[in-house]
Design brief:
The structure holds three protein chains of three kinds. In chain A, strands 3-2-1-4-5 form a five-stranded mixed sheet. In chain A, strands 8-7-6-9 form a four-stranded mixed sheet, with helices on both faces. Chain A has helices at 32-35, 38-49, 78-89, 128-138, 142-149, 163-176, 180-200, 218-228, 241-260, and strands at residues 2-8, 13-18, 22-27, 56-62, 74-75, 95-99, 104-110, 113-120, 208-211. In chain A, 41% of the residues lie in helices and 19% in strands. In chain A, strand 1 and strand 2 form a beta hairpin. Classes of the chains: A alpha/beta, B alpha/beta, C alpha/beta. At the B-C interface, helix 6, helix 7, helix 14 and helix 15 of B face helix 5, helix 6 and helix 14 of C.
């Protein structure tokens, strides 16, 4: 049997197909235009494993765009899915920190289950969006920011927590002649500190796994470790934990139904363009 | 909690955040503040954590060392060491819009409990462990709620009491006066009973009487000194100094040192006024700090405007209360306390009437700018919106509106917080302040 | 004329309709904000009590009169006032319940003029002297309403008004009782509409409506569906169905609340025997469980917490809930300070808690969907 997880985030669409192991994973393009085309990402994943859509026993959609996926059997929030995905990769995890494009969340996990969570999606500071804004202002590529910041000898302090003000602060520091790596290090610290403080409300326990697009930024990860006082774990592909968790939860539901002899509750799924605007 | 450590002064943060002091008196305050925290550790007397509520005299009379967590929070902010406390309180779920004095105060107790000792970065050695806490409903809701929550971190009996005031416009009515004085007196008696029980001794009423009467003299000197300074051209005592010099009035009232301090302040200001000694060389613009607590995290900002020829000649946030003389027939010291505080409200209402503000400012604008702009020859008003203080923020827009209805004096709103430096953006403040001074300049040119 | 729930729904959608009609007939309408002003005195004076509320629509006018860094609920109420939505209100009773309300008194009075305006001081302490003070305040209010209404409020007519309002509260409690079973006979969304409607019309009509609704609901076949999770909602002012409806749509039955426009308003009655003003003072100051009133406890921390919050835990048990949502309006200081304590207290009692801090607007409410769903997934 095959199971699929579809994670429609604010900037990326992720699809995972699995049976006992992950068979295919596709990370789709970003942007409002492409977001509707989650079906294309699904089709790409199906092509990789050479399966028709009907062969997929169960599809779980998650993420910001989960509600309007016409080809899903069930919607489950990214919080539950991340917890599942992260604990399948790291059974020792007790705290997951996910920093995505538009939000940041902390999840407390016990035995693979969510026991508490916190979330920030009202303010860009402390999310990937914040880094994008600054990268744009500085004419840097997102990917190079992390490594660059590791060269910092004298990190500046970015005190403001507002994205607009912090961006101004960054620009004025650069104008003053502060080395860019010191400014970037300050920036990463600002994000890490904000996210860490939020997640600290759950009483952080080891092991800590960091996921989401920002987990690819080594500068932020190092800054988080500094706050935690111990190393954190980062999955090989930190964008996929939500989709993996979604597929796993679909599998669980299916097996449970089979075991109890109940029919599997499935959606009237159609592999077509998602409608986000009802 | 573990044994308390001896107080040790923590290191100054490298970046200067406090303002330059212009008066000898203001320079003395830092020592008085340090003394408050050190005495709590060294004198061996019982310690109380108290919200400022105009009842310091009771603690002096009972030989208790009062420590004021709201002052401690301001001190932490000035040293820029408040944020670890804030973070700790927020980690427990306290909102980032809850009073930052409270967040620092609660975070302090929480970290103390976590670490088993007073955090080493606590300024002035931190606050010694109390045997009681006292809060009240005077000024704002936080003042009775905050201490209730300390039981999360420390097991100390807490007493809260009411200190209510009627709408200013009805304060003069005999029935209203009787109702409020009776209630506030009963509430103070409740506090005294609690203290007696906690301390295992009775109040010495004669001693209290002496202290209260000393306090009455102190209040008068405080008021006279501040008002004398506000009206003087050039200004000898800018707002940043007066934001320091309220300390003895709030936190040492009834002590001989407080009386001496205000006598000294009055004398110093009088001397400077008589000799026309201003603080800055050329006083181009006279500003009024017309509302909101100061930015304790960056008091240095006052020097920034001074560099541009502007000076805050007065702040109306910590407004000295003009206590009318309490008649001699009132001999009970508690009654004298309640009476004098109540009469202050009446004298304020009378002032409102003179200015045509009667019944307009019953609960907002204790320090309404209209009370001062003419008398102190003010060119512009600056007010401070605080993310975490409803008590001094609500009503600022209303006061600006009233000011605009009656005068052409412009108002500038700045936004941050009294302690939480994360809400402060210096570049924004500097741009706004400079632009405001340019506006004043343009108005002067147009007017002349 | 509409009956039962339909009656309530129509009133909810056009809250001021009945009050405006009554005014046309020559009645006078007295507005009040918060659960603390004594409706009984307004009724006894022959006046129509009307609860002032806000709206989730964006605040447009109030920015010119109030700071944005304060309670968005109070700002929204003022916004409606400035927009002349409360022009049908002849007079206002303004209680000193919290900083946000107290300090808006001057501003409301200045910019939303009514022919009658009364400030009601409410002590924060629960001492004998506090009750005495507050009874005196109520006596002053009584005199002032007598003057405004041109009537004399005799002890007999005040007691009668108290009786009718007690009946109103009893009916609301009876209706709430119908939420105990699974599925509850009335949804929280409907309950909110009923509550809002009940506070927009004279108490006699309100009682009639409630009896009507109880009759309808008791026998209904088309009631709420049984959902996996039963929730309690704790918080302050919720005067709109948007949030509660969202929670129910996410897959829960909201079966009990502790809200200003919910049980907090009607759970306790006024004692009938003895001095009516003292009894009113006792109910308002002593029994409205709002964190703005200090509860004295000389005992241990646990005793203090029980003293303040055990009634919430009891609600949870009685209504068999498996989770609680704390819906706290940002800048509501007294609730903000209690929220972490309530959260820990309920968690300690085995009730899972979702703590939300909201700025009281439609857009922010919709943003909570993921959190609520994740919470439901967590406790299912």
């Amino acid at each position: 049997m095959y199971f699929a997880g579809v994670d429609i985030g604010s900037t990326m669409t992720k699809v995972v197909i699995m049976d006992e192991v992950v068979l295919a994973c596709v990370i789709g393009p970003t942007g409002a235009e492409h977001r509707r085309l989650a079906n294309k990402v699904m089709e790409e994943a199906l092509r990789q494993v050479n399966l028709p859509f009907d062969e997929i026993s169960y599809v779980v959609a998650t993420g910001y765009g989960r509600i309007s996926v016409p080809f899903a059997d069930k919607q489950i929030t990214e919080i539950t899915c991340h917890a599942k995905g992260v604990s399948s990769l790291f059974p020792t995890v007790h705290t997951a920190i996910d920093i995505g494009g538009q939000d940041a969340k902390g999840i407390k996990i016990a035995d693979g289950r969510v026991v508490g969570f916190v979330m920030n999606d009202k303010c860009a500071a402390g999310t990937g969006r914040f880094l994008e804004v600054i990268a744009d202002d500085l004419g840097l590529r997102l990917e190079e920011m992390g490594e660059l910041s590791l060269n910092s000898k004298n990190r500046v302090e970015i005190s403001s927590t507002c994205t607009v003000f912090a961006a101004q602060e960054v620009v004025s520091r650069i104008a003053e002649g502060t080395p860019i790596e010191d400014v970037l290090a300050g920036l990463h610290e600002a994000i890490a500190s904000r996210v860490f403080r939020m997640v600290e409300r759950l009483k952080i326990e080891r092991d800590v796994v960091v996921t989401g697009g920002v987990a690819k930024n080594i500068g932020v990860v190092k800054a988080l470790e500094e706050h935690a006082g111990f190393p954190v774990l980062v999955p090989e592909e930190p964008l996929l934990t939500g989709a993996v968790g979604a597929a796993l939860l679909g599998k669980e539901l299916t097996l449970k139904a089979l075991e109890s002899g109940r029919p599997i509750e499935r959606g009237a799924r159609r592999l077509e363009v998602a409608t986000f605007f009802e | 909690m573990s044994e308390q450590k001896n107080p040790e002064a923590t290191q100054e943060v490298p970046k200067r955040t406090s303002a330059k002091k212009w008066t000898e008196s203001a320079r003395k305050v830092r020592g008085l503040v340090r003394d408050m925290y050190v005495r709590a550790f060294t004198e061996g007397k019982p310690v109380a954590w108290v919200m400022f509520t105009l009842v310091n005299e009771l603690f002096v009379a009972m030989d208790v060392v009062p420590v004021y967590p709201e002052n401690f929070a301001g001190l932490c902010a000035t040293k820029r060491v408040g944020n670890p406390f804030i973070d700790r309180a927020e980690a427990d779920g306290f909102s980032n819009v809850s009073c930052s004095y409270a967040r620092i105060g609660l975070g302090y107790a929480a970290l103390w409990k976590d670490m088993g000792e007073i955090p080493s970065f606590a300024p002035d050695g931190g606050m010694a462990k109390p045997i009681m806490m006292v809060g009240s409903s005077l000024v704002c809701d936080t003042r009775y709620k905050w201490f209730q929550t300390y039981s999360r971190y420390m097991d100390v009996p807490y007493y809260a009491f009411d200190m209510l005031g009627p709408p200013a416009s009805t304060a003069y009515r005999p029935d209203v006066r009787e109702q409020y004085i009776k209630y506030n007196l009963a509430q103070l008696q409740g506090l005294v009973s609690f203290m007696e029980e906690r301390l295992g001794k009775k109040m010495d009423w004669d001693k209290l009487d002496e202290i209260v009467r000393r306090g009455e003299k102190t209040y008068v000197l405080w008021y006279d000194a501040y008002m004398l300074a506000g009206g003087a051209v050039p200004c000898p005592f800018p707002a940043e100094d007066s934001f320091n010099c309220f300390f003895p009035a709030f936190f040492m009232m009834g002590e001989v040192e407080a009386l001496d301090f205000y006598q000294g302040l009055y004398d110093e200001i009088k001397y400077k006024v008589d000799n026309k000694m201003g603080s800055i060389p050329e006083e181009k613009y006279r500003l009024l700090w017309g509302g909101g607590l100061p930015p304790w995290h960056t008091m240095q900002i006052f020097n920034y405007v001074e560099e541009q020829g502007a000076v805050f000649v007065f702040q109306s946030t910590y407004l000295p209360l003009r206590f009318a003389d309490v008649p001699d027939r009132i001999t009970d010291p508690l009654e004298r306390m309640v009476h004098s505080r109540y009469e202050a409200a009446i004298s304020r209402a009378e002032l409102d009437r003179k200015l045509g503000l009667f019944d307009l400012c019953n609960f907002v604008g204790l320090g309404n700018p209209l009370l001062f702009v003419d008398e102190f020859k003010v060119d512009g008003v600056v007010m401070h919106w605080l993310r975490s203080c409803r008590g001094t923020t609500i009503g600022q827009v209303y006061q600006k509106n009233l000011l605009e209805e009656r005068t052409s004096i412009p108002t500038l709103f700045l936004e941050s917080d009294m302690c939480d430096v994360r809400d402060y953006f210096e570049a924004d403040w500097k741009v706004k302040l400079s632009a405001f001074l340019e506006t004043l300049e343009a108005r002067k040119r147009a007017g002349s | 004329m509409a009956k039962g729930l339909d009656w309530a729904k129509r009133l909810y959608e056009n809250r001021s309709q009945r009050a405006k009609e009554l005014r046309e007939e020559g009645k006078k309408v007295i507005g009040y904000i918060c659960a603390f002003p004594p409706r009984e005195l307004i009724t006894a004076a022959g006046l129509v009590p009307y609860r002032i509320t806000g709206t989730l629509e964006p605040i447009a006018e109030a920015d010119a009169y109030l700071e944005t860094l304060m309670c968005p609920y109070v700002r929204s109420c003022l916004d409606l006032g400035i927009k002349k939505q409360y022009d049908f209100v002849d007079g206002m009773i303004w209680p000193h319940t919290c900083d946000n309300i107290q300090k808006t008194f001057d501003i409301w009075k200045h910019y939303v003029p009514h022919s009658y305006f009364h400030y009601l001081d409410v002590p924060h302490m629960p001492d004998p002297s506090s009750f005495e003070f507050f009874a005196k305040e109520l006596d002053v209010l009584k005199g002032s309403l007598e003057e405004f209404g041109g009537v004399k409020i005799t002890e007999e007519c005040l007691k009668e008004a108290i009786g009718v309002h007690n009946e109103n509260r009893a009916l609301l409690r009876q209706l709430t009782g119908l939420r105990k079973q699974a599925p509850p006979l009335i949804s929280a969304t409907e309950m909110t509409q009923v509550m809002m409607a009940a506070m927009s019309i004279p108490v006699y009509e309100s009682n009639e409506m409630l009896k009507n609704i109880i009759e309808e609901v008791s026998t209904r076949k088309d009631g709420p569906q049984n959902k996996a999770t039963r929730l309690l909602i704790y918080g302050c002012e919720i005067d709109d169905i948007a949030f509660i409806n969202l929670v129910e749509e996410c897959g829960a039955n909201v079966v009990i609340d502790d809200l200003c426009m919910g049980t907090r308003d009607y759970w306790k009655d006024v004692v009938m025997e003895g001095d009516p003003l003292k009894n009113l003072a006792h109910r308002i100051l002593g029994e409205i469980m709002c964190p703005r009133t200090f509860r004295r406890s000389r005992g241990t921390r646990q005793q203090d917490l029980d003293n303040r919050f055990s009634y919430i835990r009891d609600f949870a048990k009685e209504f068999n809930v498996n989770g609680a949502i704390l819906y706290i309006i940002r800048y509501c200081d007294t609730f903000e300070f209690d929220a972490p304590e309530v959260r820990d207290y309920l968690e300690e009692a085995g009730i899972r808690v979702l703590h939300l801090e909201d700025d009281y607007s439609l857009t922010s409410i919709q943003g909570y969907k993921t959190r609520i769903q994740a919470f439901l997934e967590m406790i299912e």
